Amino acid sequence: MAEASYPSELKYHEEHDWARVDGDIATFGITWYAQDQLGEVVFFDPPEVGKTVRKGDPYAEVESVKAVSDVIAPLSGEIVEVNEALTSGPEAINDDPYDGGWMVRVRLSDPSEVDSLMDADAYRESLT
Amino acid sequence: MAAGTETLKRTPLHDRHVAAGAKLVPFAGWEMPVQYTGIREEHMAVRQGVGIFDVSHMGEIETSGQGAEALLQRLLSNDVSRIAGRGAQYSVLCNERGGVLDDLFTYRLRADRFLTVTNASNHERDRAWFERHTGDHDVTVRDRIADYAMLAVQGPQARALVAGLADGELPKRFTTKELTVAGVPEVLVCGTGYTGEDGVELLVAPDAAATVWDAVAAGGATPVGLGARDTLRIEACFHLYGNDLTEDRNPIEAGLGWCCKEHTGFVGSDAVRRAREEGTAEKLVPFAITGPGIARQGNPVIGGGVVTSGTLSPVLGYGIGLAYLPVERTEPGTAFEIDVRGKTRRAEVRTKPLIPEER
Predict the structure, then answer these.
(1) Theoretical Cys-Cys bridge with B60: which of B75, B144, B203, B276, CB 3.0 to 4.6 Å?
(2) What are the pLDDT digits (tens) for B163-184?
(3) Which of B227, B293, B343 minimises the CB distance to A65?
(4) Cα dist. B188→B151, B152, B182, B205, B221 in Å?
């Protein structure tokens, strides 16, 4: 995805992570800005299903050719699914950060945390 | 110094980098392009075609006069008397303990005039070291960093491209020649590089650098940033000062015994001779990761040793690097493990270069 985009149906964390919330299940990934800063992602080290993640804490690692970065959980909960396709095709994180590049699905332990995340406009504003 | 408070130096090609969409980063006090379109794409352009790099942050020290060769013989680890007219030679600069202060290429421009290319981060220290050792030598040491921009043109098609812009035959590998390139007179063309590919490095007056850059780029060279410069040199197993070479390592353990000629009596030669005779506890080796993961600089080797350079190899598609290992574990094929941020990654000692020479 060559052009910056921040879909309005997503919620955003200041560490450049997004969450797509559906009841008490949320899907996580990194934003267009994050993948652009990182450069070409060459390795995604997925967490294990069943692991607990806490809002603001790292839950996975992505590596570009040059550097490694932690991926921060935008919300708290338990991992119920991992995007296994990223293990063999991590470039989806660059090419399709909001769809094919999703990282984990989480059963939220405190859905009210969603209220503390930014909407797309606020996130876009935070980047300027 | 906190990021953002220092004034970064810009090369004469800064406008070109901005126009080409480069990501610019601070590097050794300079604002340098780390990548343009992407490290992998730029890397493969150099392996398969031709790339152009702005390496104007590199420093130059000119040593001239009747005593120039004697001074360099005293400072540089290699046998400077063996540099032929217009020749080039790699060496290290050592302190008295044999610790490496820098690694450098020296070009003999005339019988009594030499140009030594320094690493940006070491240039001031090198220059001061040269000055301090002039002693009774009949020699003039001049800082030439402001007089040269430096471009590297590298890749299997590099020579053909530059030859088409030059008014004479290009210098052979490890030699130099002054040529007119893209209409710019007196470009010092050097048959050297840092990628493992054929190519040349061009030392050119700063105000003419953009003319040469534009002509080489128009000839089909891909602009390549420092990111791919690093991945290319790791595949080729060339050392990077600050990673694989430091004041705390001697050239023998770094695998650079081949460019140390202790009989010349250079500063540090006694310590280097001792290291060569007695052996060292560790040695720098190339390695490959044999499972998932990428090791990085500073990752400890389980059971002793440390990774000093690490990346994903764009050519091989897996993690590679350079690591200091206990000597008894440096035989090619030896398996070892690296602690990569708490995860154990399997690796194996390889031979250099890490990529096949014929591809």
Answers:
(1) B144
(2) 999 999 999 999 999 999 999 9
(3) B227
(4) 11, 12, 13, 9, 19
A residues 88..127 contacting B (CB < 8 A): none
Under 8 Å between Cβ of B33 and B223: yes
- Pair B306, B298: CB distance under 8 Å: yes
What ipTM describes this predicted complex? Answer: 0.78
Closest by Cα among B123, B130, B83, B79 to B103: B123
**What's the token pair of residue A124?**
């876009």
For residues B112 and B105, what is the distance between their CA atoms, to the nearest angstrom?
16
Which residue on chain A is closest to B36 by alpha carbon? A39
In B11-157, alpha helices (H): 14-19, 39-48, 68-75, 123-132
Residue of B nearest to A65 (CA): B312
A57 touches chain B (CB under 8 A): no
**Residue A43 near chain B (CB below 8 Å):** yes
Closest CA to B10 of B199, B206, B185: B206
Minimal CA separation from B274 to chain A, in Å = 37
pTM over 0.90: yes
For chains A and B, CB pairs below 8 A equal 40
Q: How close are the terminal C-alpha atoms of chain A, in Å?
A: 20
For residue B205, the SS3 value is coil
The domains found in chain B, sorted by start residue, are 14-56+148-234 (3.30.1360.120), 59-146 (3.30.70.1400), 281-353 (2.40.30.110)
A66–B292: do the CB atoms touch at under 8 Å? no
Do the chains contact at B35 and A43, CB–CB below 8 Å?
A: no
Q: Given CA atoms B318, B320, B326, B329 in this order, what sign does their dihedral have?
A: positive
Q: Closest Cα to residue A97, out of A14, A53, A38, A22?
A: A38
Full strand arrangement of the beta sheet holding A41-45: A41-45, A58-64, A68-72
Closest partner residue to B40 (CB to CB) among A40, A63, A68 is A40
CATH class of A11-121: mainly beta
Report yes or no: B62 and B113 within 8 Å, Cβ to Cβ. Answer: yes
- For residue B136, name the pLDDT band (cuts at 50, 70, 90): confident
Nearest CA to B60 among B208, B202, B163, B226? B202
Q: Are strands B59-64 and B51-54 parallel, antiparallel or unpaired?
A: unpaired
Contact call for A45 and B343, based on CB within 8 A: yes
Q: Which tens digits make up the pLDDT trace of B340-352?
A: 999 999 999 999 9
Exposed / middle / buried, residue B307 (Cβ in 10 Å: 0-12, 13-18, 19+): buried
- Put simply, the answer to whether B312 touches A42 (Cβ < 8 Å) is yes
- Give all strands of the β-sheet with B51-54 in edge-to-edge order: B176-181, B184-190, B199-204, B149-154, B51-54, B222-223
Residues of B with Cβ-Cβ distance to A45 under 8 angstroms: 292-293, 343
